[in-house]
Every structure is written in C-alpha cells, then in structure tokens.
Write the structure tokens for this entry.
Amino acid sequence: MIESDRELSSIMQELWDSDVNRLQPGKDYMISLQGKAAHSMPLEDLNDGAGSPLFTFVDEKFFKKDTFLAFISLLDNYVSDTGEPEIVTPEEVAENHKFLDCIIQSPTMKIAHKYLVEKNLSPKNETKFKEQLYRIWFELYARKGASKPDSSGFEHVFVGETRGGRTVIGFHNWIQLYLQEKMGHVDYKGYSVDAHSPQPDENKHILALQFSWKDGIKPKGSIFVGVSPEFEIALYTVCFLSSPNERVKVQFSFYDVEIVCHHHNEKHIGTTYPVLLKYRKPAQ
C-alpha cells in the first residue's frame, strides 16, 4: 500500500470503530442474497436471480435515531430523472441543514473533521465546515447533457437518479434501497460478482447487486449495508477532499475496499461508492 492509503486506512478504521449507530447483520437486519444476477444484454431482458426481496428484516427502531430521521426526511426531496431541473424549496433547504447539524455532532463526523483540519483540507470553524459539506453534497449542478442544475452529490449517491427513464444511476445507499423495496418500487435481481470479486456474504457490510427501480434498471451497484448515514458522509467526504486520484484503496475491519469518488468541477461529488476487493479473516 502506498503511504497515503495507509494513512487513509487508519482514519477509515477510526470512522468504522466510532460508528455507534451501525446495525449488526443477523441481529438488527437480515438480507437474503438468493441467486446471482444476470449480465446479459439488453438490460430490459435481464433474468431475475432473486424471487424474493433483498431485505427480510430491518429493525426500524434505528430509523428513529436523530441522524437516520434527518437523513430519511431528505429522500423525497428530488426529481429522479436527470435533465429535469431541481426546484429546492425553503423547507428542503432547512431539512438539508438539519441533517448536517445532526451528523456534525456525531462521533464519526467529529473524527473526520479533526482529520481534515489537521490536513488543512477543511476549516476548523464548525459553521464553515458545515458550509463546505453543504457545497460538496447539496449544491446543485448540471449533470452531463443537462442545461440547468438537475443534480447534487447527495441526490445521486444516496437517493438515486434515472437517465432517460430506463437506466438507474447512482443510488448507493441501503436505507433508500430498503425503503423503496418496502414500498414496491425496487425489485432486487440478485447479487453481482465477477472473476476477481469475493463471494458475497449476508453477514458482511458491503454488497454488489442488481435491481430495478421505478422503470429503470441498475445493472450493477455497490453499497454499504447497515452503516449509519454519518459514517458514509464522513468516509466519502474524507476521500473526496484527500484523494485527487478518484479511486483509493483502503483497509478497515475485515474489508479491503476501493472507494471510487468522482469529482464534479472539483467542488462537488459526482458519484462515490465502495467496491469490495477482499474479505480479510479476523486475527485469531
């Protein structure tokens, strides 16, 4: 590992260890992997490798925690199709601020903030740090092919978007996936593996999968499962600000992971998600 990755791995481990709101697999939630997703084209004809939903159980008492509540309130604030300009109401702006106020107080974001200040990547002042987070995640920009601001880092990564009504882009969040599946908008098609990726595991926190949403298909997506919103915002913000490479390999807990983090105009997150490279067995 190159030195910066070792340093990032160390901070990622701290973020992971501080995530007191993370759900435990097999106890607080259960998923059913079922079959492997098809990779045949065209996408409309994909076979369904899973006859049942992905989530068989989630203890929704976690959704009553402040950061989860504030996060879930943001999920209905967006028009999913790219090219449709986003109109942000004063109520939605207030919800964005409330979410950031909540997560900034979490142990996980405090660790991320301290690290970013030490690296001169974020302002020490909490209000200014919140402004930086707002710009990265919530400031609107025009995605490829759009003439007016139609997207944001938060919408793309956590809510999901559709392109041309047929292709799902972004949508890398397990809470949104669970809630949309529960409402009947998501159809899980199976897990995704290739020759180099490890076999998925129902008791691990990272999963590559295929699903349809509304009328579109996500041929392959990768998500953390069971982690808190503050963990994901902290991890992705650290990667966005500290790594110009747009792909960084880190190790934490049992995972060797590549964090993909594409920048948009150097100011905003275009997309970001985890790619599982390997499970490491815990030391005896």
